[in-house]
UniProtKB/TrEMBL annotation:
Name of the protein: Si:dkey-32n7.7
Molecular function terms, GO-annotated: serine-type endopeptidase activity
Alphabetically ordered keywords of this record: Disulfide bond, Hydrolase, Protease, Serine protease, Signal
Organism annotation: Paramormyrops kingsleyae
GO biological process: proteolysis
Location of the Peptidase S1 domain: 45-282
Length: 339
């Protein structure tokens, strides 16, 4: 998969109280969302492996003309969260969203699909800085929850996700570090486990390429490289486990290369958008939960003396050149391109 070998996950039952929305607030045509973040069948991405069927039941595939473009996450029976940079000027009806898929080709007996009726990009999204890289898609038809289709919980605004927190990323993106190799047929969903890289450390690393890592961003990956998300994973989920529930911590956003040393992947920090999501979607039956990290807060750390390899410096220089070209001709940037 495009950003990130994994170990087996432990299956738990039940759900935190924070994932139980009030059924009184739901319109009659929608079934109540009793829990979120449940993966009943959960017992790559670059450096990842095939995900067992049903392991990540909120994983969505956003398609145009039958082709996978970006990933997304199901947050209730009718709404999906993805990355703003995946969205172009096309009509919402040009998009189809599929959930419950195991592969991009062949039979998917557990899959469900819907045309998109509305797309809402965050009003402060900045395509140059990648800040606020988040969007919402409303489906034209509700999905039915099964063992293979479930909504994910979302990290609440008071969540802390610090350096070293273990996290998972999933998707159907490219599987080479340079992004030149697509998933082999039939395109099985990939999964990989990686650690959070604290924002201060990440800022120091990306500062060498004059890229600002804001508080609306979250970084994850191995500093030595080898595991990461990539082109085609954009918009997809970065999740961590809280007791019995899986929590959406990030949305795949951007990076320099894929799984390259010194440049972890960058994700949109979901916890910063609780108020926006609540005020934007109807029905608002999403499950926000507070995730408290056991990792280390590096916000007060000073930038270490970073000795980047010559290849890393070359990649950073190439990124700056490409960014300049794209600022002159933005149409050159394909949606979901991970630089």
């Amino acid at each position: 998969m495009g950003k990130h070998s994994s170990t087996a996950l432990t299956l738990h039952t039940g759900a935190p109280q924070g994932c139980v929305p009030s059924p009184l607030s739901l319109p009659a045509h929608l079934s109540p969302l009793p829990v979120c973040g449940q993966a009943p069948l959960n017992t790559k991405i670059v450096g990842g492996e095939d995900a067992p069927p049903g392991s990540w039941p909120w994983q969505a595939s956003l398609k145009q003309n039958g082709s996978h473009i970006c990933g997304g996450s199901l947050i209730n029976s009718i709404w999906v969260v993805t990355a703003a940079h995946c969205i172009g000027s096309e009509s919402p009806h040009d998009w189809e969203v599929f959930v419950g898929l195991q592969t991009q080709e062949g039979s998917n007996p557990n899959g469900q699909g819907s045309v998109v009726s509305r797309v809402i990009v965050h009003p402060l999204y900045d395509s140059q800085t990648h800040d606020n890289d988040i969007a919402l898609m409303q489906l034209s038809a509700t999905v039915t929850f099964t063992d293979y289709v479930q909504p994910v919980c979302l990290a609440a605004s008071n969540s802390t996700i610090y350096n070293g927190t273990e996290i998972w990323v999933t998707g159907w993106g490219d599987i080479s570090s340079q992004g030149q190799f697509s998933l082999p047929s039939p395109g099985i969903l990939q999964e990989v486990q990686i650690p959070i890289v604290g924002n201060r450390i990440c800022s120091c690393l990306y500062g060498t390429a004059n890229i600002n890592i804001t508080n609306n961003m979250l970084c994850a990956g191995l500093l030595q490289g080898g595991k990461d998300s990539c082109q085609g994973d954009s918009g997809g989920p970065l999740v961590t486990q809280l007791g019995s529930a899986w929590v959406l911590a990030g949305v795949v956003s951007f990076g320099i290369g894929c799984a390259e040393p010194d440049f972890p992947g960058v994700y949109t920090r979901v916890s910063n958008y609780q108020n926006w999501i609540i005020s934007t979607i109807t029905p608002n039956n999403t499950g926000f939960v507070t995730f408290t990290s056991s990792g280390k807060d590096d916000s007060n750390s000073t930038c270490p003396e970073i000795g980047l390899s010559s290849s890393s410096m070359t990649r950073a220089s190439n990124f700056l050149l490409l960014s300049l070209l794209l600022s002159l001709a933005p149409s050159l940037l394909h949606p979901c391109l991970k630089l």
